[in-house]
């Protein structure tokens, strides 16, 4: 989704902006641009497509200056063309502006502004902002005041930065619903939509909250509310370094992140498993655990991969904690007026902590007076800050658009929460110890699966030309089937469906013929016999069977065309293992089809618009 970088300071402007944009590439975008205040006014250079195309344009243009802004756009209003790329300017070339979010009343504002003589150059909603600021940017009015007055007329969401030729010593930024972080340097300051864009230069940051704006000069940052009240902000130290956002020798971020999973799972459990007590400890829930424990109903809401993790959480919490759990897409939850009473609690799951629908669902739940718990990866993200309590994944930055390591960490954290609550209820000490010990073995078991990547690659070679795939699983592995199918369609553009294996008979079975690869998650657990019957049904119709099975299950070789083994584990923990070969399968198929796995078409890492 759109990315923002802004800089004021002594460094050469183009390298700082371009480096920031590259750090934001992972979010997904379809055009990019920069603007800088130079001796001869504001220079804007922008281009459709990848940042490399913008870079080629910049090589032919010498731009200097010490104040500038850069943007990657993910089209919402207007096609992804050079014209519609940010930065935008108004009727003169006095101002340049970049914006993430959506201006909901842009159409009304545009009509009003046109009637006042403004001429529009693009099809975007964003352009109204810069014309609106012009209306208030009278002689003697500072830029921040003109922006503030303009924003009182705006409905919608924004994280924006504006610069002015008239005041070349400042950047002005504001936030409502779209993240903005201010990076604090020595004799220089930065603004960005996420910390990755500034981490090359500083680890000291301040996050703006909704309704806040900031003025950045070289040596000062002043923050106030859009209602003109002063605010005091905390300076936060970013805990990770550049190494964690580099590819670390892998060809793609996605492969690196898949391969990192033994370590990221370990990080999710670090200091949280108490072997002697057969228990989990989650500091982020301290003080709030009682409301989770005594809830009569738990509602989990999320989007995409995080929603799949939520489904696994539902199975876990109902089996071990015996609390009724419902899982709902955040986009549905927010508009559906869900029944939430004093005995309900809500859990939101979000890797980025910025997904617009999940954030809106969280706010809706809080409005209804219930406690909201968060499971997030990005520390300091909006969702992490707005929930009453929560648990971080500690998976490190996830750059590949298709979520991999965050998923296994989310399921691990859900298992930890389940263990904690179950032990506070009826689970025995012995069972708790058994779970703790098994969880500790998960990293090495994932490592073992990763070592079979060449075998997965060979299977990918055979099926990379397929046009459809089915993924089937039961119980805890039904959500894994959904997630496996999602991975494949996201990055290879092959149509793939996930289904509960038994439901196949009620529709998808009609699709099966000799051209249909069917991936079964057929581990040796409580529904094993049933899933074997489902495999037979597919074989009877000549479908090709790829089975994910438990080590030692020789029998399944007779029934499947291909078998990928995973080590055995407790049934409720199997998703943490079974998803790994499916991530690899999607990755290799996508590579073989020549797809851009880290930045698949049309997708965004963090969907900050509805
Ligand atoms: C986007 C990403 C998905 C992700 C989903 C939810 O669609 O492409 O990979 O699962 O958003 O994101 P979140 O950050 O809230 O987990």
> How much of the residues is beta strand, in percent?
15-25%
Query: How would a textbook summarize the main sheet?
Result: 8 strands, antiparallel
Helix content: 25-40%
Output the radius of gyration.
25 Å
Overall geometry = globular
Overview of the molecule:
The protein has 610 residues and is an alpha/beta fold. Helices cover 34% and strands 22% of the residues. It has 18 helices and 25 strands. The protein has an eight-stranded antiparallel beta sheet with strand order 3-2-4-1-9-8-10-13, covered by helices on one side. Helix 14 packs parallel to helix 18. Bound molecules: 6-O-phosphono-alpha-D-glucopyranose. Residues 303-306, 350-352, 355, 358, 401-403, 603, 605-607 line the site of 6-O-phosphono-alpha-D-glucopyranose.
Features:
binds 6-O-phosphono-alpha-D-glucopyranose, 22% strand, alpha/beta, 610 residues
């Amino acid at each position: 989704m759109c990315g923002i970088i802004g800089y004021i300071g002594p460094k050469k402007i183009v390298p700082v902006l371009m480096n920031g944009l590259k750090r934001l590439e992972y979010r997904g975008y379809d055009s990019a641009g920069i603007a800088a205040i130079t001796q001869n006014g504001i220079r804007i250079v922008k281009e459709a497509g990848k940042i490399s195309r913008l870079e080629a344009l910049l090589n032919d243009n010498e731009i200097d200056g010490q104040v500038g802004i850069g943007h990657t756009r993910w089209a919402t209003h207007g096609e992804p063309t050079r014209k519609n790329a940010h930065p935008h300017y108004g009727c003169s070339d006095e101002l340049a502006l970049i914006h993430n979010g959506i201006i909901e009343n842009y159409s009304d504002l545009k009509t009003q502004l046109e009637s006042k003589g403004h001429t529009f150059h693009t099809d975007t909603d964003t352009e109204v902002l810069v014309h609106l600021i012009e209306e208030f940017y009278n002689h003697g009015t500072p830029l921040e005041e003109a922006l503030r007055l303009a924003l009182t007329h705006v409905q919608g969401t924004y994280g924006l930065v504006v610069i002015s030729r008239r005041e070349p010593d400042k950047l002005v930024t504001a936030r409502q619903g779209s993240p903005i972080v201010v990076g604090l340097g020595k004799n220089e300051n930065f603004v960005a939509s996420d910390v990755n864009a500034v981490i090359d230069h500083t680890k000291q940051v301040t996050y703006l909250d909704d309704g806040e704006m900031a003025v950045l000069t070289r040596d000062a940052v002043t923050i106030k509310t859009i209602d003109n009240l002063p605010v005091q902000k905390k300076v936060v130290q970013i805990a990770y370094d550049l190494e964690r956002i580099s590819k670390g020798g892998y060809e793609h971020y996605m492969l690196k992140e898949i391969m990192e999973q033994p370590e990221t799972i370990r990080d999710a459990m670090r200091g949280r498993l108490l072997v002697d007590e057969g228990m989990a400890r989650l500091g982020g829930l301290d003080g709030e655990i009682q409301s989770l424990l005594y809830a009569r109903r738990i509602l989990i809401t999320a989007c995409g991969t995080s929603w799949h993790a939520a489904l696994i959480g539902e199975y876990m919490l109902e089996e071990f904690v015996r609390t009724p759990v419902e899982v709902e897409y955040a986009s549905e939850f927010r508009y559906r007026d869900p029944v939430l009473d004093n005995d309900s609690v809500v859990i939101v799951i979000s890797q980025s902590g910025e997904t617009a629908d999940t954030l809106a669902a969280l706010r809706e739940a809080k409005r209804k007076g219930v406690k909201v718990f968060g499971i997030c990866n990005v520390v300091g993200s909006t969702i992490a800050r707005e929930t009453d309590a929560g648990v971080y994944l500690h998976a490190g930055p996830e750059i590949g658009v298709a979520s991999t390591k965050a998923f296994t960490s989310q399921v691990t954290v859900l298992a930890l929460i389940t263990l904690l609550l179950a032990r506070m209820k009826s689970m025995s000490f012995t069972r708790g110890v058994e779970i703790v010990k098994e969880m500790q073995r998960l990293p090495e078991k994932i490592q073992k699966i990763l070592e079979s990547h060449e075998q997965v690659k060979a299977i990918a070679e055979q099926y990379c030309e397929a046009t459809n795939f089915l993924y089937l699983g039961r119980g805890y592995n039904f959500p894994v089937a959904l997630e496996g199918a999602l991975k494949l369609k996201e990055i290879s553009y092959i149509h793939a469906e996930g289904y509960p294996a038994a439901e196949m008979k009620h529709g998808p079975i009609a699709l099966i013929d000799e051209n249909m690869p069917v991936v079964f998650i057929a581990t040796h657990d409580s529904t094993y016999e049933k899933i074997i019957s489902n495999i037979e049904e597919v074989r009877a119709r000549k479908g090709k069977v790829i089975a994910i099975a438990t080590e030692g299950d020789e029998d399944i070789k007779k029934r499947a065309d291909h078998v990928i083994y995973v080590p055995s584990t407790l049934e409720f923990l199997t998703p943490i293992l079974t998803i790994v070969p499916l991530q690899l399968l999607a990755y290799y198929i996508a590579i073989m089809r020549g797809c851009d796995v880290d930045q698949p078409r049309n997708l965004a890492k963090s969907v900050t618009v509805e």
